[in-house]
Amino acid sequence: MTRVGNYGGRRPRSTRAAAAVAAALALSLAACGSGGGDDDAADAGTTGAMEDYAAGDQFKATEPVEFSILWTDWPEVTVKDSWEFFDVLEERTNVDLKTTHIPLSDHLEKRSLLISAGDAPEIIPLVYTGEEKQFAASGSVVALSKYLDQMPHFQKYVEEWDLQEMVDNLRQEDGELYMLPGFQEVSVPMFTLLVRKDKFDELGIEMPDTWDEYREAFLKLKAAYPDSYPLQDGFQGQSLLNYAARSFGTQAGWGFGDGMQWDEDAGELEYAATSDEYKEMVEYFHGLVKDGLLHPDSFTVQDQEAVERVERLISEGKAFAGSGASGTAIEWSQALDTTVGAGNYEVVQVPPPAGPAGDLVEPRNFWHGFMITKEAESKPHFTALLQFLDWLYYSPEARDMLRWGVEGETYTKSGDEYTLNPEYRLDIFNLNPGAPTDIQKDLGWSTFLAEATESRALKESYATDQAVEYIDQVLSTRTPTDPNPPAPLSEADLEQAALLGTPLKDAVDTATLRFILGERPLSEWDAYVAELEAKGLQQYVDLYNTARERFAENNG
Amino acid sequence: MVTQITAPVKTPDARPVGARDSRGYRVFTWLNVSALVLVTGVMLYPFLTVVAQSFSSEAAIRSGQVSFWPVGFNLNTYRAVAENPLFWANYRNTVVYTVVGTLIAMALTTTYAYVLSKRHLRGRGLLIGFAVFTMFFNGGIIPNYVLISSLGMKNTLWAVVLPGAISIFNLLVMKSFFENLPGELEEAAQIDGLGWFGIFGRIVLPLSKAVIATMVLFYSVQYWNDWFTAFLYIDEQQRQPVTLFLRNLIAGASSAASEGAAAQSAATQSISVNIQAVTMVLTVLPILCVYPFVQRYFVSGVMLGSVKG
Fold first, then answer.
1. What pLDDT shows up at residue B264?
2. Which domain holds residue A168?
3. Are A324 and A382 found together in one domain?
4. Could you say which residues from 478 to 507 on chain A have a Cβ atom under 8 Å away from some Cβ of chain B?
């Protein structure tokens, strides 16, 4: 509590200092603008911007403008100046996109470097929620929430797709938004359980729906194939625990995040890894390992090797279920084609099994979005930039274009059906293989920009039938977890949270692994909790609860 | 010496023992040879696997059949990689960066080292201190980035070539080599009327082939392998070196197995192991070919600073 007091004491001073700086700036600005009158200052920043730009409008800059954008290079997609994408974009919007290239392999490092050095392009795309924190804290990106009134498409979809609460969750400690995310009309877990349904059918096992039923099914599979381990994970268990944890009412693996989960009864945030729900989950998976249903290597083999290991076991018939995305299902099928032959197997993507907490899956998600670097805010074309990004990220026409290209030329659309024209192909989704022109590699459509905001129709337009069915099943049989209430940390808190959180997370990871593999008996659970407490668990949890209360007070 | 070491290797079963081959010595040689063979195997294995993979079919690699020998032999992947214009553009860049970089680095390092080797030079301590200081302290990535970018060197050859032009380690090795050259030679040259540049160019450099060859090797390998400098300062794909291309191909693919990129993985087909293997082989090959030619200098280069007979 004393810390809070200290903090409260320090805060007004820094605010006052900031106010003084702001006042000085305003004075100097006023001094500069005194010759031209006040209207000039207000007009500044509107070069090329459209008047009365509204939802449904095609954005077109009133004069040619050039925007710079950070472009992540996927190894198999070489950006070409001749891409139709750049030409069509310029023709429709009067915007010439200038790209700064960073390789995918280390794009996060390079992005930080460019932004920190003040040398970043105006548009920073491919920003996932949470990644903006460090840049927001250092003030190197624009507080976009101040300009939402100039982004009509954004507002329209917040309302139409019921996203207001989720958007508010992205607000930083000062109540502002520093990144605008890509919207998903429907959001389902990307990684889930993939099973070889034909093996289940062969033994007359009805497709299970809950973790307990899966356990029964795995036991039967093990009995029929004694040298198999039915369940595997190719992501060090991170994926498995991620989707499993939700149905146990907690969070783990990839979805562990800062480790805070909402305790409804206590009305406060608690640390996930010490909760009863987490313990129950660990017990369940320990049971699977103990009975030889889940192979211990699932938790220890790393990276590409792990992915290939599972693929091999599946293709050899020594495993029948594992974690993966729809892409994984395709890879398994290719591997199975070579071993058991096409048509002799069936790989399906099933919704994450339900558990003690019910049919819960991860909260609805945003997709990657964008930030704007601070320097852009003072440029003459800033308003046009906002309007352009609003159009590019949120208008349905732009989304169709980014994914499929030019209607009538590369694709045709009738209702919600998108069809790629026969002379074009799209290798990443294996569409029209053999056609002469790839709309991604040759024309520049379907790049990462196409992913950000997607309507359900657009998402399903390139998915396999199996993936479409999976989306249907999840939406009809599963419930997304409610998101945690916002608890944005201040810069000082962030630093402290990182100092405390990292050793905690390490301890949790190690203990989770040892509990599940049976190297540490579950009777030592209390000792494990005590270890975490000795590492400053309470202090860490307090940081978040204080931040949550502070945010609730300041922002209602 | 040579025959002594190799004789037991060639005929390990030979019963008759030479007078000087004591039992202990034979055991030692045996252990030595087996250990070295083992180490060589451990080092060669991954490389041979990659070579084998580059000629194998994707399906065979995925099902884990490829170890030493190609399975499903084909050259399709080589053809596919060779058809990628970006690969060759980047390859050309690497060659240019390596050649220009090595030339500049050699010019700067030899001259600097020669100056430092003269004990009578006033301020020599300061010049050495100046160089050694940079071994322990540097500005850090962001200040360096700002520096390069304000010098207007971003996206140019110079950004890749200049920052690493003087490697202090190489400088010190050369300095001690020059110090060990007999001073009488230079005095004789001086008496015959050569100036300092003449002595350096006509006497010292020709006598220093061993160390120069070693340094050329060090520098060219350094420039050839370097991806980080280019990663920092080059924003245009067409100007990047092939190492960056390779890194993106491999690290970009394996990061698709982690979560941040899992996001993208649905939309990203995994890059085939073939393509990775072929690119690795093509990238490693040229610099690998340099080694045998420099080998004989290399040994004497490594002996630098040791007692000379």
1. 38
2. 45-186+367-398
3. no
4. none
In a domain, B307, yes or no: no
Average pLDDT (B228-248) is: 91
Q: Does B151 touch chain A (CB under 8 A)?
A: no
Q: Which of A107-121, A368-382, A407-421, B272-286 shows the lowest mean pLDDT across its residues?
A: B272-286
* Smallest Cα distance from B291 to chain A, Å: 29
Nearest-CA residue of chain A relative to B144?
A117
- Pick A104's closest partner by Cβ from B64, B146, B248: B248
**What pTM did the predictor assign?**
0.82
Closest partner CB to A76 (pick from B145, B240, B271): B271
Q: How far is B304 from chain A (nearest CA, A)?
A: 39
Cβ atoms < 10 Å from Cβ of A545: 15
Give yes or no: residues B186 and B292 share one domain.
Answer: yes
pLDDT tens, B173-229?
999 989 988 888 899 999 999 999 999 999 999 988 888 988 998 999 999 999 999
Domain boundaries, position B33: 2-74
- Looking at residue B240, which CATH number applies to its domain? 1.10.3720.10
Do B54 and B153 have their domain in common?
A: no
pLDDT in tens, A359-390: 999 998 899 999 999 999 999 999 999 999 99
Q: pLDDT tens, A12-45?
A: 333 344 444 444 444 444 344 333 333 453 456 8
Structure tokens at A194: 């993939």
Residues of B in contact with A104 (CB under 8 A): 248, 251-252, 255, 261
Looking at the structure, tell me whether residues A455 and A502 fall in a common domain.
no
ipTM: 0.78
| Same domain flag for A268 and A381 | no
Rounded to whole angstroms, what are the CA distances from B57 to A214, A261, A326, B78, B277? 37, 48, 24, 12, 11
- H-state helical runs in A439-478: 456-461, 465-477
Beta-strand relationship, A123-127 and A367-372: antiparallel
Q: Is residue B148 one of the residues assigned to a domain?
A: yes
User: On the CB side of A61, how many CA atoms lie within 13 Å of its CA?
Assistant: 27
